[in-house]
Amino acid sequence: MSVTFTAEGYTPPTLADFNPPAILFGGTPFEIDRLVMLRLIMCAVLLLFFVVALRSPKFVPRGVQNVAELAIDFVRINIAEEILGKEQGRRFLPVIATIFFAVVATNFSAIVPFMNISSNGRIAMPMVLALFAWVTFLYVGIKKYGFFKYFKSSIVVPNVPPALHVLLIPIEFISTFILRPFTLMVRLMANMLAGHILLVLFFGSAWYFFFEAGNFTAVFGVASVAAAVAFTFFELLVIFLQAYVFALLTAVYIETSLHADSH
Fold first, then answer.
1. Which site in 4, 172, 231, 241 is 20 to 30 Å from 137, CA atoms measured?
2. Would you say 255 and 82 are in contact if contact means Cβ atoms under 8 Å apart?
3. Which residue, 121, 129, 113, 103, is CA-closest to 42?
4. Rounded CA gap, 104 and 188, in Å?
């Protein structure tokens, strides 16, 4: 956890937490710092979990297989099939599930001791996931309707006066093809960045009140610890909520591409 103390006392967390020094390959395009390392570790743990859970599946699941199947069924039933229907939900389940579990895994390091930060607080991973969703819903629409018909159906609002198209076409283009991936990316990054800063602030101030501030401040330390514990549980909720929202909106965007002609 990025908490520092100087001769002047407690130093609050800053955005520098998300730009740590290089661990490997510094100064190259393949530079690996602490956040990249955490990202690789959490993705490896995610892959290992599903490999172990599903390497020899039983007809009646037990143990870790049961946990994995419950998690996949949650995504399939409550996101993919809820938005896309059974047929298209099963078709796009790999995409939606990959996004959901990738976000959960890379977010989860925010509350793991000795990790205490989510790599999604920096723009790279949210950008990759948003581009993955963007390419998917573009591919779906173009494959079904063809390039020109898909774009026309997506940005031309029917049954409006022709003069309004001068205003509506740019708005529809920006909202459909630019703001969708941008908001996916920024929402995830901003939530995890803010969550990290608040957690570090609570735990760091607790340490300061207990050990650095002097007499009669322990009561504030107790309050800081209580706030830190409560916010850790809230952050756990945010971890899953952000994954759910990201996957849900991806499914919604795919559904709008499948039905672009019913604008």
1. 241
2. no
3. 103
4. 11
User: Could you give the CA distance from residue 223 to residue 143 in angstroms, rounded to a whole number?
Assistant: 57
For residues 204 and 108, give the distance between their C-alpha atoms in angstroms, rounded to a whole number. 20
Residue with tokens 């101030």: 205
The predicted model scores a pTM of 0.89
DSSP for 151-166 reads HHHHH--SSS-GGGHH
| Spatial separation of the C-alpha atoms in residues 242 and 234, rounded to whole Å | 12
Give the residue among 241, 109, 106, 150 at the shortest CA–CA distance from 187.
241
Q: For tokens 């002097």, what's the residue?
A: 214
User: Which residue's entry shows tokens 């930060």?
Assistant: 117
Q: What is the largest CA-CA distance in the chain?
A: 74
pLDDT at 68: 92
